[in-house]
Amino acid sequence: VQLQAYGGGLVQAGGSLRLSCVASGSIFSINGMAWYRQAPGKQRELVATIARGGSTNSADSVKGRFTISRDNAKNTVYLQMNSLKPEDTAVYLCKMEVVGRDSGSRVYNRDFWGQGTQVTVSS
After folding, report:
1. Cα atoms in the Cβ-side hemisphere of radius 13 Å centred on 45
2. How far is 46 from 44, CA to CA, in rounded Å?
3. I want to staple 97 with a disulfide (CB 3.0 to 4.6 A). Which of 1, 6, 30, 31 is the partner?
4. Distance in angstroms (rounded) separating the CA atoms of residues 12 and 55
5. How many CA atoms lie within 13 A of 92 on its CB side?
């Protein structure tokens, strides 16, 4: 299973970006999906989560500005980021809890991470 994240870039403060993360490979289903971020010199921070049924949670620092959503048919999670601030600058990483089958036909349930996409917000 591979996760590919894209949609990052350079944006001015107050602007918007939409991140996407697509999972591919031998996938039966995907349970929780999440976005994290990590700024230079800082610990990785949980930004938002979404359950398979659609219930969401987000960090206080992004509430009212960021929205997480998913498309189960496309194995994709999105993060709509509005009213961006310089402190949102970070590498954004997606994580998915995937149920699949390995090469030995054993069913697994484990987390996979995307490679990250850089978001830079200028003041």
Report:
1. 18
2. 7
3. 31
4. 30
5. 30
Tokens of 11: 């944006």
Tokens matching residue 96:
């998915």
Q: How far apart are CA 63 and CA 56, in angstroms?
A: 11
The model's pLDDT over 72-99, given as tens digits with 9 standing for 90+, comes to 999 999 999 999 999 999 999 999 999 9
Assigned token pair, 64: 């009212």
CA 64 to chain centre: 17
Q: What is the pLDDT of residues 19-76, one digit of tens each?
A: 999 999 989 999 999 999 999 999 999 999 999 999 999 999 999 999 999 999 999 9
| Rounded CA separation 20/117 (Å) | 10
24, 75 in Cβ contact below 8 A?
Answer: yes
